[in-house]
Specification:
Keywords: Membrane, Transmembrane, Transmembrane helix. This protein is an alpha+beta fold. The protein is built from three helices and three strands; from the N terminus they run αβββαα. Helices cover 62% and strands 13% of the residues. It has a three-stranded antiparallel β-sheet, with helices on one face. It starts with a helix and ends with a helix.
């Protein structure tokens, strides 16, 4: 067995398999997490087919009767919705994960579990793909010398 075969069979394939499994886990957990938020607060995702990436608030209300303009940016989407202060307050704990990945601060244990699994799977996925890219780059560099 040559050095190249060793690298392919014992390094490349296991890392590729782990990366693939991590990516699939991430997709499953994030989908469940988004569905959970959608069930709790349908207005947060009423027009979005993708997770919200940025939510920016302008003109923060001084009373519960005034409304807030929410600018939501998803994958190529640019949508603005109007929410009352009470609606925004009820959604804020669920939007925390999206804004800051602060799922530990959410007071719902089920949300903590789903958010934590989604974040862990995403980190594993990113780590696996980073290692895979390093190995492919290393093989390319070693093949040139």
């Amino acid at each position: 067995m040559s050095d190249f075969d060793f690298v392919i069979y014992y390094i490349f394939f296991p890392i590729f398999a782990l990366s693939f499994i991590s990516a699939m886990s991430w997709l499953i957990f994030v989908t469940q997490f988004i569905q959970y938020i959608s069930d709790k607060h349908p207005t947060l995702y009423e027009h979005l087919g993708h997770p919200v990436i940025h939510i920016l608030f302008w003109r923060f209300p001084k009373s519960s009767s005034s409304s807030v303009r929410v600018h939501a940016t998803g994958s190529g989407l640019n949508i603005q919705n109007i929410y009352t202060f009470d609606e925004l307050k009820s959604m804020s704990s669920y939007a925390t994960f999206i804004l800051k990945a602060g799922y530990r601060k959410v007071d719902d244990p089920m949300m903590q579990a789903k958010g934590g699994r989604a974040r862990a799977a995403g980190l594993a996925c990113a780590t696996g793909f980073s290692l895979l890219l390093c190995i492919v780059f290393g093989l390319a560099v070693s093949g040139q010398s």
